[in-house]
Specification:
Distance between the termini of chain B: 11 Å
Order of helices and strands of chain A: HHHHHHHHHHHHHHHH
CATH architecture of the largest domain in chain A: Orthogonal Bundle
Oligomer: heterodimer
Order of helices and strands of chain B: HHHHHHHHHHHHHH
Largest sheet of chain A: none
Largest sheet of chain B: none
Radius of gyration of chain A: 29 Å
CATH topology of the largest domain in chain A: MetI-like fold
Structural class of chain B: mainly alpha
CATH class of the largest domain in chain A: Mainly Alpha
Number of helices of chain A: 16
Chain lengths: 310, 312
C-alpha cells in the first residue's frame, strides 16, 4: 500500500515537473517570439527615421566637408554623393551663422511662431465652445450642422482657395498675417477633435451640476474643460504640427517674403548653401519634435478621436 | 455607444419624472445654450467659407473679367481642357495607388504590434514622420532620389556585388518615376497615423470574443478572417477618409521637389488650381472648385452612409 501511494506521489511530482518545464518552455518561446517581432518591427521603423539622422549629421558638418560629399550634385559627373554618419570635423558653425549672423532668419522663425500661436489660440477660443455645443446640447438641426462641419473638415485647401481669396480680398486682408490666420481659426478640424474629448464625459455629471444650480457657462468651464481636455489638447498638438508645416495658405495669400513662415522659406535655400540649409532645417524641426515628444499621448488620442464617429 | 445608452435612458426617466413644463423649458434653454456656444464658430464658417463658396458657385457660371452670365461654358471649358483632364487622371491614380497600399502596410505593422507588450517606442518611431516639416524632408529626398543620389549608389553597389547590372544613373525626380517617389513619400509620412488607427481598432475588439474562439479551437487564420477583420470595418472607413484627406497634402512634396510645372506624371489637381490662381483664371477655378467639391461631398456622404449601415 505504502509503495503504491509513494509511487503515485512520485508520478504526481514527475507530472508536475513536466508540466512546469512545459510552462517554462512556453514562456521562453513566447518571450523569444516577442523579441523577434519587436526586432522585425523595429527595422523598418529605424529606416523610417533615417532622414532625421542625415539631417542631424549634415547640420554639424563644416561647409568644406559638405561640399566634398555633395559635389556630384553640382558637377553633373558620374560620381555618386557620399556621406559620413560621424563628420570628420564636427562643428556648430552652421548654427552659429544662422543664429548670430542672419537676422532675417529670426524674422521668419517668429513669423512661423506668430502664425501658429495665433491660429491655435483662435481655434481654442472659437472651436472648443462649438465642440462643446455639439457634444452636450442636442437640438434640432445640430446633427445636420455637424455633418456639414465634417464635410468642411475634409475639403482640401484647393477647393476653398478661391472662396478664401474672395473674402480676404473683400476684407482687404490679403498680404497680411490675418489672411493666413483667420480662415485657419475657423477650420472645423479642431471642433471635431475637441468634440471627441467632450463626448467621453458622462452626461450625468452635467445633470447633477444643473440640479445643484450651476449655469451652463460654469458647467463648461468647471466640468467640461478639465474633463474634456484631452480632446482639445490633441487638437492643439495636431494643429501645431499641421500649421508649423503649412505651405499652401501662405503661398497663396502672402506675397511679401518678409511675412513668410519658415516652412515656405526653407526650400528657397540652394545646394550651394547646403550647410545653411541643414542648419535651418534642424531649427525648423526642433519645435515640431519638441511638441511631438511632449504631446505624443495627445497626438495618438487625437488620431483616435479623429476616427470616432459622431 | 453602449456606454452612453444607459446614461441617456436614465436622463429620460429623470425628465419624465418632472412635470411637463419642465421639459419644454429645458428645451428652449438647451437651444439657447447651443446657440451661444455655437455662434462664434458658425459665424466665422459662414463668413469665411459658406458665403464665399456661394459666390464661387455664382462665378462658375460667369466670365472671369466682366462677370457676365454665360451658362455652363466654364464647365465645358475645363472638361475639354487637357491640363484639367491630365490633373484629374493623375490625382485619381495617386489616390487609387496610395490608399490601398497605406491601408495594407498599416495593418501588416499594426497586427504584430498589437501583440507586443511594449509597443510604445516602436509606435513613436513610426509616428515620427508626422512631426517632420515637409520643407526639411525634401532636402533628404533630393539626396536619395537624385541622379547621383543614395538610391542609385545603393543599386549600383548591389548590381556590382551580384553582377546583375552596372552603374545606374536614373533621375527619379525628372522622369515618370517621380510618381513613385511621391507614393513613397506619402506612405512614409502617413504610415504611423494609419498604424495608430488600426491599433486602436484592434485593441478595441473585446478580448472575450478572441478567447471564446480560441477555446472553440479556431485557427489563427480563422480568427483573423472571421473575427478580427469584420470588427475592424469601422477603422477601415476612418482610415480611408483620413488617408484621402491627407493625400491632397502630397502637393507640398510635389511642389518642393519639382516646382509649379513638374514632370507630367505628377501634375496634380493641386498644381492646376495653383497655376490657375497665379494666372487669375478665376472662371475655370470656380467651375473646377464646384466640381471637385461636389464630387468629394458625394463621396463623403456615401462613405458616411456605408458607415452608418455597418454600425446598425
Amino acid at each position: 500500500m505504502d509503495g503504491i501511494v509513494e509511487n503515485r506521489k512520485d508520478r504526481g511530482a514527475e507530472k508536475n515537473m513536466i508540466w512546469n518545464a512545459q510552462i517554462w518552455k512556453n514562456k521562453h518561446i513566447k518571450s523569444a517570439k516577442q523579441g523577434l517581432t519587436t526586432f522585425l518591427l523595429l527595422l523598418p521603423a529605424i529606416f523610417v527615421c533615417l532622414p532625421i539622422i542625415l539631417l542631424v549629421t549634415g547640420s554639424v558638418m563644416g561647409n568644406g566637408e559638405l561640399k566634398q560629399y555633395l559635389s556630384p550634385i553640382f558637377t553633373e559627373g558620374m560620381e555618386y554623393i557620399s556621406w559620413k554618419l560621424v563628420p570628420d570635423y564636427p562643428t556648430f558653425e552652421n548654427y552659429g551663422k544662422l543664429l548670430f549672423m542672419t537676422p532675417q532668419f529670426f524674422v521668419l522663425f517668429w513669423n512661423s511662431m506668430k502664425l501658429v500661436g495665433c491660429i491655435l489660440i483662435g481655434q481654442l477660443a472659437v472651436g472648443v465652445p462649438a465642440a462643446w455645443a455639439f457634444a452636450v446640447y442636442k437640438v434640432r438641426g445640430s446633427r445636420t450642422l455637424f455633418v456639414l462641419y465634417v464635410v468642411l473638415m475634409l475639403l482640401p485647401f484647393q477647393v476653398t482657395m478661391l472662396s478664401s481669396y474672395l473674402v480676404l480680398n473683400r476684407l482687404g486682408l490679403l498680404n497680411t498675417h490675418q489672411a493666413v490666420i483667420l480662415p485657419a481659426v475657423f477650420s472645423t478640424f479642431p471642433v471635431f477633435l475637441s468634440y471627441g474629448g467632450f463626448r467621453c464625459i458622462p452626461m450625468q455629471l452635467f445633470e447633477a451640476a444643473r440640479i445643484d444650480g450651476a449655469g451652463e457657462g460654469t458647467i463648461f468651464l468647471k466640468i467640461g474643460l478639465p474633463l474634456g481636455k484631452s480632446g482639445l489638447l490633441s487638437a492643439m498638438v495636431l494643429g501645431f504640427l499641421e500649421y508649423w508645416n503649412m505651405m499652401e495658405q501662405p503661398m497663396a495669400f502672402l506675397e511679401d517674403k518678409a511675412l513668410w513662415p519658415l516652412s515656405l522659406y526653407l526650400p528657397e535655400i540652394t545646394w550651394v548653401q547646403a550647410g545653411y540649409a541643414f542648419g535651418a532645417s534642424m531649427i525648423t524641426l526642433i519645435p515640431a519634435v519638441f511638441v511631438f515628444v511632449w504631446g505624443q499621448d495627445y497626438l495618438e488620442q487625437g488620431i483616435i478621436y479623429s476616427g470616432l464617429k459622431e | 455607444m453602449g456606454k452612453f445608452g444607459g446614461v441617456m435612458r436614465e436622463k429620460n426617466i429623470w425628465m419624465k419624472g418632472n412635470w411637463k413644463g419642465m421639459r419644454k423649458r429645458q428645451g428652449t434653454k438647451t437651444g439657447r445654450a447651443f446657440l451661444v456656444f455655437m455662434m462664434p464658430s458658425f459665424l466665422g464658417v459662414l463668413i469665411f467659407v459658406l458665403l464665399p463658396f456661394l459666390d464661387v458657385i455664382k462665378r462658375s457660371f460667369a466670365t472671369a473679367v466682366t462677370g457676365q452670365f454665360n451658362g455652363i461654358q466654364n464647365y465645358k471649358t475645363i472638361f475639354t481642357n487637357q491640363a484639367f483632364v491630365l490633373a484629374v487622371k493623375n490625382t485619381f491614380r495617386f489616390t487609387i495607388v496610395c490608399i490601398p497600399l497605406l491601408v495594407v502596410i498599416g495593418l501588416v505593422i499594426a497586427l504584430p504590434l498589437s501583440k507586443l507588450k511594449s509597443a510604445g517606442t516602436v509606435k513613436s518611431l513610426y509616428l515620427f514622420p508626422l512631426a517632420m516639416p515637409t520643407a526639411t524632408i525634401v532636402i533628404v529626398w533630393k539626396m536619395f532620389f537624385y541622379k547621383q543620389g543614395f538610391l542609385n549608389l545603393f543599386l549600383t553597389r548591389f548590381g556590382e556585388w551580384t553582377g546583375l547590372w552596372g552603374e545606374i544613373h536614373k533621375d527619379y525626380l525628372g522622369s515618370s518615376a517621380a510618381f513613385w517617389v511621391l507614393v513613397f513619400s506619402y506612405v512614409w509620412k502617413n504610415t504611423g497615423y494609419t498604424v495608430a488607427l488600426w491599433l486602436a481598432g484592434i485593441l478595441g475588439i473585446p478580448g472575450e470574443l478572441l478567447e471564446a474562439a480560441k477555446v472553440d479551437g479556431a485557427s489563427g487564420g480563422q480568427i483573423f478572417f472571421k473575427i478580427v477583420l469584420p470588427n475592424l470595418k469601422g477603422s477601415l472607413y476612418t482610415i480611408v477618409i483620413l488617408s484621402f484627406l491627407n493625400s491632397f497634402k502630397i502637393y507640398r512634396e510635389a511642389y518642393l521637389v519639382a516646382g509649379a510645372y513638374p514632370e507630367q506624371d505628377i501634375y496634380l489637381l493641386q498644381h492646376l488650381f495653383n497655376n490657375w490662381f497665379v494666372n487669375l483664371d478665376f472662371d475655370k477655378m470656380a467651375a473646377a472648385a464646384v466640381c471637385v467639391g461636389g464630387f468629394l461631398f458625394i463621396v463623403i456622404m456615401l462613405l458616411q452612409h456605408l458607415w452608418d449601415k455597418q454600425e446598425t
